[in-house]
């Protein structure tokens, strides 16, 4: 067992109650790619001053913070839900499913779940609370938001190599002009969410 793992085991043994996981998702409003969620349990008295809502940080700041979060977290995980599933069960259900998957992959179950946003389905029998803009208020949710965002960005950069015409390495699947222009010119891929309005109505008529 490495020193890092010994440290985490010691922390787990010290915790007897109030084990709380934070969870958040990224990519809910994108036209392509998965919705990605992360779950994080931080140690008592954890404090990382730079930690904040991932949307308020630069890409470099997020990637600088990720290894610090992972090194200090007691346990963390992330999960993707892909476009074919999003099209079947809708984006809200897919976002919650991704959070459930991330929670199920933690090394042990929390006693409470802090959820960013205003909607969540119960996970197992664990109590939870939805917190609007929680990623700017609680470090465990902020940590989850950074992991979800960076691991989703990694995925989008990877599939950009397969389909560079959509510029996913920069827009990460969001509805930028470059992305919509790529759809209008090249059509869609299996990575696109067909249940979303991928183009404005007038452009849809133009390409039929």
Task: Give a structural overview.
The longest helix has 22 residues, at 139-160. The N and C termini lie far apart (60 Å). The relative contact order is 0.20. The chain is 43% helix and 14% strand. The protein has helices spanning 3-14, 59-72, 83-89, 91-104, 139-160, 168-171, 177-186, 201-207, and strands at residues 20-26, 35-41, 75-81, 112-116, 128-131. Helix 2 crosses helix 5 (139-160). It contains eight helices and five strands, in the order αββαβααββαααα. Strands 3-2-1-4-5 form a five-stranded mixed β-sheet, with helices on both faces. The chain has 208 residues and is of the alpha/beta class. The chain has one domain: 2-Layer Sandwich (Nucleotidyltransferase, domain 5), CATH 3.30.420.
């Amino acid at each position: 067992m490495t020193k890092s793992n010994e440290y985490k085991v010691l922390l787990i043994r010290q915790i007897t109650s109030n084990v709380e996981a934070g969870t958040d998702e990224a990519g809910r409003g994108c036209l392509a790619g998965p919705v990605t969620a992360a779950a994080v349990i931080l140690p008592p008295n954890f404090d990382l001053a730079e930690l904040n809502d991932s949307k308020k940080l630069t890409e470099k700041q997020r990637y600088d913070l990720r290894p610090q979060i992972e090194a200090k977290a007691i346990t963390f995980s992330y999960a993707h839900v892909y476009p074919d599933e999003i099209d079947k069960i809708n984006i809200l259900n897919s976002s919650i499913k991704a959070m459930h998957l991330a929670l199920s992959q933690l090394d042990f179950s929390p006693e409470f779940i802090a959820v960013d946003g205003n909607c969540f389905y119960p996970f197992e029998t664990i109590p939870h609370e939805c917190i609007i803009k929680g990623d700017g208020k609680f470090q465990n949710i902020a940590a989850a938001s950074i992991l979800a965002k960076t691991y989703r960005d990694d995925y989008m950069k990877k599939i950009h190599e397969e389909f560079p015409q959509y510029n996913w390495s920069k827009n990460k699947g969001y509805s930028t002009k470059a992305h919509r222009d790529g759809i209008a010119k090249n059509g869609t891929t299996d990575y696109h969410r067909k249940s979303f309005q991928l183009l404005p109505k007038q452009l849809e008529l133009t390409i039929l």
